[in-house]
Each structure stands twice: as structure tokens, then as C-alpha cells.
UniProtKB/TrEMBL annotation, chain B:
The organism of origin for this protein: Streptomyces polyasparticus
Protein keywords: Cell membrane, Membrane, Transmembrane, Transmembrane helix, Transport
Transmembrane helix in keyword set: yes
Protein name: Carbohydrate ABC transporter permease
Membrane topology: Multi-pass membrane protein
Keyword Transmembrane helix tagged: yes
């Protein structure tokens, strides 16, 4: 959508006299005479258009208010990253301190530890989590029987709708200190210990939780891409003697390549977001050395410790890097001849 | 503006459902080991997803001796009992939290749907005065994130700390859902609008009489997306709620199951408690049940929602 919206807006604003071509006549209170659609009507004055659209504009008000107050106002509120923000002084009275918060932040070892943890977790997730939905989609797509496939889809989509609290609790009952599998392993002399509190394996614990929860749901989009591949391609490949592996490599994977690139770009834009709720829930059990990531750093230093300016600075840096990454990744995708997210 | 998302989707589903059970003639017979491996993997997936549910259900229904004998968890209780559920639902902390969650979910979903429909419809008609800037306002939320602290400060300034509103309003609208509903509205043929207009109907009448009745399916899905997000949300409660009586179910689950807070008799409002792992699992099940209950209805349609949102990009 935005793509179409973006292009049409550009042309729209550059030539304001020409009304948008589609269905505009339908919006007039009295429809013009037959054939009136073809002759470009001169756009009405702003006042008349406001009057004509007042019902629609009224409908937009609550939503616009919401985004203004809970999205754009906080976005502007990031200026406190440059302030020595004091809650009792508030927004306007707090003194401006320039880049002080940022320099102080960069000198903090805890901050750098959270950056490294974030990067480590994100790298492991990219490597292990990102391919999981694709693999699952390939498996589901290879099922011939519709009933089996539907049944499997029902099973694998479900965990996505559970909350992180529930998912972590479920992992705990299996892998926790008193968990069923840990108990079983301990009985047989393999002391795996409590995986839920082990900092060394934390990254893999997080990744396996993500796979359990979201791999199925992530497969939906790849399955749809696979379903739109022309069956004739498979047939002719088979005629030429390609086995299932070659058909997968030469037909299926190229067929879903644009989707893979799209998802990769979206993932890159969120490279510094590594599952905030999920980690927040387990930070106490594992300890901040392994489980402090950028988002939890912001939460604990800002909301909990009241170091508003500096933690906002950390959040702002994260947001800016994410924004730059998504723009760059999109550019690269265009260079590679892929569609990307937007144009 | 046509709706490529919708038409694309229709084409795709058409093919998706056109798939038959029969093996196409050009496809080779599967080897026994290939087939066996596949069955094994599928079986492993089913077990991996189903196992934690079974343990939670079994343990919540098990009696004291059985849990002690099994070292904490029971998959198939020999003498199922509803003690744990009776205990948590008898009017204590958990009952209260469940009521808070239900209230927040119902009120929140209604508000979300109302505002989503209004905004999506306002943006769905071509050539509206401020349509383009407003659309950009909505789409811009995909690109930026305001960050935790500034949002917290806004909620604080509005005096919403420790109010139920703080569990609803900050997550009331979702740009993705608005885009999905808007795309659906745009797929409704223009002739219907024109016909209604000739009969003298205004925009609101068209929305209520023509557009909404045609959009039941998409509204059901989006409504359930919202409901699930309210029901599952714990972070807003963690941020904004200090008063223990206003905590939703997910927070209570977190403190009992993840943080190991002990559940005592007085908090539950009963004189004697079933074993703690049974009560914990009963709370867990309470948090899952509404999701599993709506899931079958949700599942029929949500692929559509996911695809519309994704194709829109």
C-alpha cells in the first residue's frame, strides 16, 4: 500500500490542480452528468472540500489524536536525551546539557555490556531463528495431504498467540530447576542443571523460545509465497530429471526470494530489538551480566533508577540506528533488483 | 486507488485452496526413509508444541500425593481434581486479576475497533482533503520508535499512572491493523457507494449500512488481534501500575510462576491450598484458555490479515 500511496502523493502534491483520477466523482454530493468523469473537473476551493469531507475528517480525529499523543509527542519528547531531565521541573524547565548524556553513556561499562549482549543475541537469532520459518514452510509445503497440512498449521501457529509470560512459564516447567526434562536428565546422571538460570546458555534458550513461539507464524508468509509459484515450473523441472532437492533449490527457493529479502530487511531494521518482554521476564533469573540488552538497560536505568536523560539517550541511539539500518537495507535491496519494503 | 493487496491475496488463496490431495503425475513416489523421516519430524513438532500444554493441564488437575511422588509435575493424573481451580477462583488475588484482564480486554477491544474502523474508513475514500498527510502519519509509525521513556513520561503527565486507562490507551491503535482494515474497505466496489449516495445516504450511513456489514470477517480478525494483545500484555502493567489490586492476570502469573512468590491462603481467600505447582499451573491455564478458545475462529481468517499487512509492505 504505502508504495502506491507514496507515488500517488508525490504526483498529487506537485500538481495540486489536478484531482486524483480514481473515483473522485463518486465523492461529489450530486454526481456530474454522464461523461463528466472524463473531463477533468477543477478542484473545489479548500473550504468546500472541507465541508464535503467533514464526516470523514471527524472519523479520523480519534485515531489521529492517538498517534499524535502516544507516538509523535513521545517521539518529540526524545529531546530530553539532551536535557538533565528532572521530573519535578518537567519538560520545559529542565536544563539543556547538549551531548553530555551521550558522552556519559559511552563511558559506562554497563552500557557497552548491554550493547554486546544485544549484538550477540541478535547474531545468534539471525543465524538460527531467521531460517526456521523458511525451513518449516518448506516442510509444510511438501505435504501432499491437505488434511495433514491443515492439522500441522493449526498446531504450529498456536504458540504465537500465547503471551511471553506463558511461554517462559512453559519453558520453566520443562527446563527449569524442577522441570520435567531437567529432572529426567538428572536421574540419568546428565546434570544439565537449571537451564533457565544459566547465563552461558541464555542466548540459545532465548532463540529456542523464539523458535517455539514464532517459527510457525513466521512460516505463513513463506507458505503463501510458495503457493503462488507456478506448478508448471515444478513439472518441467521434474521432466528434465530434477529430483525433489533440485526442485527445491532451483524452483522453490528462487520463487520465495523476494519474500526472504523483504523479511530480512524488516529484521535488519529491528536488529537492536531482541525480544524485550521475553528478556525482561528472565533477566532476574539469569542476571544482568548475560541478560542486559539495550531495551532492558533503558528500562532499568530510566524507569527504575530515574536516570531519565541518559536512558533516553540510549533509547534514541537505538531508534536512530534502527531507522538508518532499515533505510540502508532497503537501498541495498533495490540495488540487488529486489522490491524491498518501500520505494 | 485499487487494492493490489486484496486482489493479490484472492489470487493466492484461490490457488492455495485449489491444491488437491492427489500427487501430481510428474512427482516421484516418496522413498520409505524420506517418508519416515518426515513423519518423525512432524511428530517431533507436535510433541514439542503439545507437551508443555499437557504437563500444565495434568499438573493443574493432579492431587497432592501424586505431585509429590512425581517430583513436581504430572502429565496424566490418575484422580483428577478441580481443587486448584476452585482455590484460585474463590475470590482472591487471581480471581481479581482475571476480572481486571477480562475488563481491560473487552473495553480495550471495543475502543480499538471503534477507532480503527473510523480512521480506516476516513482514509479509505479517495481524494479526501487531508487524507494523504494523515495516512503518512499512520505509516510513519512503521519507521520510527518513540522509545520507552518518552512514552512513559507522556502517560505520567496525563495522570494515567495506576489507572486502568494506562492498560488500554497506550496500546489502543496499531498501524498494521489500520492498514489491513483500510485495504479491505478499499476493496469494496465503488458502485455500492455511488448507489447509496444516490439514495441520499451520508458517509456515516454508508459506513454503518453498507461497509460494516460487508467487513464482518476482517473486523473479527482485527478485533481478535487487539483482544489477544490486551490479554497478553504485561509490560504496560509493569510500567504503569503500582497498585496490586489493579494488576492483570499476566502479572500475577509472572509473580507466582516466574518469580516464585508463594501463594498463601489469605491471598487466595481459602482456608487450605492445594499443592503450589497445581495452583501455578491452574493460573497458567487460566491465562491460556481464552486464547485457545478463540484460536479456531481466529485461525480461519488470520492468514488473510497477515498477508494483506505484509504485501502492503
Amino acid at each position: 500500500m504505502p508504495k502506491a500511496a507514496l507515488t500517488s502523493t508525490r504526483s498529487d502534491t506537485s500538481t495540486p490542480q489536478v484531482p486524483p483520477p480514481t473515483g473522485h466523482s463518486a465523492r461529489e454530493p450530486a454526481p456530474p452528468a454522464r461523461g463528466g468523469k472524463r473531463a477533468p473537473t477543477v478542484r473545489k476551493p479548500l473550504r468546500a472540500r472541507l465541508k464535503r469531507d467533514r464526516a470523514l475528517l471527524l472519523l479520523c480525529i480519534p485515531g489521529v489524536l492517538y498517534f499524535a499523543v502516544f507516538f509523535y509527542l513521545p517521539l518529540a519528547g526524545n529531546t530530553i536525551a539532551f536535557q538533565d531531565y528532572q521530573p519535578y521541573l518537567g519538560f520545559k524547565e529542565s536544563p539543556f546539557v547538549g551531548w553530555t548524556n551521550f558522552t556519559a553513556l559511552l563511558e559506562q561499562p554497563e552500557f557497552w555490556s548491554s550493547v554486546w549482549n544485544t549484538l550477540e543475541i541478535t547474531a545468534v537469532q539471525l543465524l538460527l531463528f531467521f531460517p526456521a520459518p523458511i525451513a518449516l514452510a518448506l516442510l509444510l509445503n511438501s505435504l501432499i495431504s491437505n488434511r495433514t497440512r491443515r492439522f500441522m498449521q493449526t498446531i504450529v501457529y498456536l504458540p504465537h498467540f500465547l503471551s511471553w509470560v506463558v511461554v517462559v512459564a512453559m519453558f520453566q516447567q520443562v527446563f527449569g530447576g524442577a522441570g520435567t526434562i531437567s529432572g529426567y536428565l538428572a536421574e540419568h546422571g546428565i546434570g544439565a542443571g537449571n537451564l533457565m538460570t544459566n547465563p552461558d546458555t541464555f542466548t540459545f534458550l532465548l532463540t529456542s523460545q523464539m523458535i517455539w513461539k514464532d517459527a510457525g507464524y513466521g512460516a505463513i508468509i513463506f507458505l503463501a509465497a510458495m503457493a503462488s509459484i507456478d506448478n508448471g515450473l515444478y513439472e518441467s523441472a521434474a521432466m528434465d530429471g530434477a529430483g525433489w532437492a533440485r526442485r527445491m533449490w532451483h524452483v522453490t527457493l528462487p520463487g520465495i526470494r523476494p519474500t526472504i529479502v523483504l523479511m530480512l530487511i524488516l529484521r535488519l531494521g529491528e536488529i537492536l530489538s531482541v525480544g524485550f518482554e521475553q528478556i525482561l521476564l528472565q533477566r532476574e533469573a539469569v542476571g544482568p551480566d548475560a541478560a542486559e540488552v539495550l531495551d532492558t538497560y533503558v528500562y532499568y536505568h530510566g524507569v527504575v533508577d530515574g536516570d531519565w536523560g541518559m536512558s533516553t539517550a540510549a533509547g534514541l541511539m537505538k531508534g536512530v540506528i534502527g531507522f538508518v539500518l532499515i533505510v540502508v537495507a532497503n537501498k541495498v535491496a533495490h540495488r540487488l533488483g529486489e522490491q524491498g519494503v518501500y520505494r | 486507488m485499487t487494492t493490489p493487496a486484496i486482489s493479490l491475496f484472492k489470487r493466492r488463496t484461490a490457488r492455495f485452496t485449489a491444491r488437491t490431495d492427489a500427487r501430481p503425475p510428474w512427482m516421484e513416489r516418496p522413498t520409505w526413509y524420506g517418508q519416515g523421516l518426515k513423519v518423525l519430524v512432524l511428530g517431533a513438532i507436535v510433541v514439542a508444541v503439545g507437551y508443555p500444554f499437557l504437563i500444565a493441564l495434568g499438573t493443574s488437575l493432579a492431587g497432592k500425593e501424586e505431585i509429590a511422588a512425581n517430583g513436581g509435575y504430572v502429565m496424566f493424573p490418575t484422580e483428577p481434581t478441580l481443587q486448584a481451580y476452585e482455590a484460585v477462583l474463590s475470590g482472591g488475588v487471581v480471581t481479581r486479576a482475571a476480572l481486571v484482564s477480562i475488563g481491560v480486554t473487552l473495553v480495550g477491544t471495543a475502543l480499538s475497533l471503534l477507532c480503527t474502523i473510523a480512521l480506516a474508513y476516513g482514509l479509505s475514500r479517495p481524494g479526501t482533503v487531508a487524507g494523504k498527510p494523515i495516512l503518512f502519519l499512520v505509516l510513519g509509525t512503521f519507521l520510527f520508535t518513540p522509545g520507552i521513556i518518552p512514552v512513559y513520561l507522556v502517560v505520567d503527565q496525563l495522570g494515567m499512572i495506576d489507572s486502568y486507562a494506562s492498560l488500554i490507551v497506550p496500546i489502543m491503535l496499531n498501524a498494521f491493523n489500520i492498514v489491513v482494515v483500510r485495504a479491505f474497505f478499499q476493496g469494496i466496489p465503488d458502485e455500492l457507494h455511488e448507489a447509496a449516495r444516490l439514495d441520499g445516504a451520508g458517509e456515516i450511513t454508508v459506513l454503518c449500512r453498507i461497509v460494516l456489514p460487508l467487513s464482518k470477517a476482517v473486523l473479527a480478525v482485527v478485533g481478535m488481534f487487539y483482544a489477544v494483545s490486551y490479554w497478553n500484555n504485561f509490560f504496560n502493567a509493569m510500567l504503569y501500575i503500582n497498585d496490586g489490586a489493579k494488576l492483570p492476570l499476566q502479572m500475577v502469573l509472572r509473580s507466582y510462576v516466574l518469580q516464585g512468590d508463594t501463594i498463601n491462603e489469605s491471598a487466595m481467600g481459602v482456608s487450605s491450598l492445594p499443592p503450589s505447582s497445581a495452583t501455578q499451573m491452574a493460573v497458567l491455564l487460566l491465562a491460556i484458555v481464552p486464547i485457545v478458545a478463540v484460536y479456531p475462529f481466529l485461525q480461519r481468517h488470520f492468514t488473510k490479515g497477515v498477508l494483506t499487512g505484509a504485501v502492503k509492505g
